[in-house]
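Data availability (excerpt). The following record was deposited with the supplementary files.
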Amino acid sequence: MKASLAIRATQSMVLTPQLLQSIRLLQLSTLELEQEIEQALEDNVMLEADETYEAADESTITPGPAVAIETESVPEAATGCDAGVHSEVEADFDWSSSESWSGGEPADEDDEPWTSRTAAPTSGDARVGALEQLRMMVRTRRESAIVTAIVENIDDNGYLECPLGEIGSQLGDDFDATSTELEAALTMVQSVEPTGFGARNLVECLRLQLEILPGSTPGRELALYLVANGLELVAERRLDQVRRELHASEAEMKAAFNLVLALDPKPGASQGAPAEAAIPDVIVSGRPGAWRVELNTERLPRIRVNGSYERAIATSAHRALKDKLQEARWLVRGLEMRHETLLKTARAVFERQKGFLEHGEERMVPLTLREIADAIGMHESTVCRVTTAKFIQTPWGVYDFKSFFPSQITGSDIEASGTAVKAMIRRIVDSENRLNPLCDGAIGALLLRQGIRVARRTVAKYREAMKIAPATARRTAPVRRGQLVQVG
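Predicted structure:
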């Protein structure tokens, strides 16, 4: 055999930089889009803020069959962009140029994307925070390798479920860590914040949190005994047995019980990323029969191509300026397409969720991405992107766009969604007799009377998702005659 050269003609589908940029703009949240536009205004002289922006007329949903909104019917002013670029955006442009945008991420003179110059967001992972603290505590490279291996085996809830011997084998023969070294390293890991991180089970997690409290803390010693010997009794609220065995007073038992309840059973999960403000991208208002669906014009990017520069370089042969002009046109057109798609999708969704607008979550019907994609003539992936990290302001509050695509409850006599069933369970619990609360089976029987067939375990799953306590914990003791009730 010998090497040879051959020429073959093949066909393949390639995403153009223009399409990549449009896809990227679709899935950006409002805050991310604002940052993108601010950076684009700084980098591209052909763009300018549109201070003459005026709000557009809203789209109105009237009674009748669901009809997808047409692109041409969307007021151009609703996007806050210059509509004059539509006829010019198809001009010849060499997207292989080193100065082109390359999918919407501009590069500086050193070919370094602008995102590399922004500060990295603070990680919400407790493992990352633990490693940062341990970096100041370890003294040798061997010690560092052992604690790093332990931290890497801790799950998202902050528990070390992997045995120390197995972690030692992961380090290899080069380290050959002894059990004493592994135990010492685990003790070091468990000393960092959050307290309880690195525990091997729930008892150890709670014990670590109690041991750091001052010895004078009321109920501390009794709480340590409850954690070590009576967690089942605490969960079932059967503390009289422990109180009699230890000859403890009712006040001491109550202090210990409240102390155990205040502990964090999942120290790793509580270190999530800080919550961000939910800025609505779409606003739904009006009244039954005439609902208005409109974009949040206060937060829409208001940019356009600089007309003076555009006319000045119309006859210029400067390649770099022409590339910048074409980048500006594509960005404006990409924003136009993003907002048109968002408005079309929102209108199609609320054509099917009119019951929610009029009656709340109990009337939210099942909906899939495919249904909306077929209604607006787009692919499911496009609908998925345009509904990601977007929020809708409705008469019932601000909702995540994804929440309007609930799953369907199978086996029911009527069409019901998981969101509607949750709302019904919440209403049933709120209106129950506190002296005799309903168990999950009784709640399922009440739902069956309305034609919704759900299993008891499904009711329990939805109840736990809404952080509603079981019936035994919701029961309120009756007030006896002559008994004083403390209010507050």
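Summary of structural features: The longest helix spans residues 319-352.
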